[in-house]
Amino acid sequence: MAMLIKSGGRRGRRKPMADINVTPMVDVMLVLLVVFMITAPMLATGVAVNLPKTRADQLPTEKERPLVVTVDKDGNLFLGMEDKPVEIAQLAPQLIAIAEAKMDKRVYVRGDESVPYGKVMTVLTLLQRAGFTNAGLPVESRDIKRVDDILEEGGETP
Predict the structure, then answer these.
(1) Rounded CA gap, 36 and 126, in Å?
(2) Within a domain: 69
(3) Is residue 41 part of a domain?
């Protein structure tokens, strides 16, 4: 009978592998991608308001998230993406503190279409007195007749 003799040591010992198994890492990355794709839209919702509808171009995007002041249909004020209303007396000092840090920051005033014009103007005045000079009023786009056509017909703009 013949017998195979292995030289060099212990039986069944394998050489260490120098390759990295990336399959578990890819699985983890795909799970994280799905989780972030689902949760990202939920983080930027804010307070639901019924914005006035008009035909307007989209505002240019910025690298930094703008400050948002929201006036809902009941006239409550919200600063940023907070879901708790802020009293107008508390809003002014908060705006001044933010303005000291970021004077050139764009501010968006989101106002429900049923809110009185004076309430939105009060917010704009507070922003101006706090030192903000770059404010925008975002709207939802919808198809309407051109303003010239409406004025020629003598109708009112929506």
Answers:
(1) 36
(2) yes
(3) no
Q: What is the CATH number of the domain that holds 81?
A: 3.30.420.270
Amino acid at 109: V
Q: In terms of C-beta density within 10 A (0-12 exposed, 13-18 middle, 19 or more buried), how is residue 1 classed?
A: exposed
Q: How many domains does the chain have?
A: 1
In a domain, 26, yes or no: no
Q: What is the pLDDT along the chain (158 residues), one digit of tens a residue?
A: 555 555 555 566 777 777 888 899 999 999 999 998 888 877 766 677 777 777 766 655 555 677 888 998 888 899 887 888 888 888 888 888 888 876 567 888 888 888 888 888 999 998 888 888 888 888 776 545 455 566 676 655 45
Tokens of residue 55, six digits: 């035909």
Q: Are 24 and 113 in contact (CB under 8 A)?
A: no
| Model confidence pTM above 0.70 | no
Please compute, for residue 139, the number of CA atoms within 13 A of its CA located in the half-sphere on the CB side.
Answer: 12
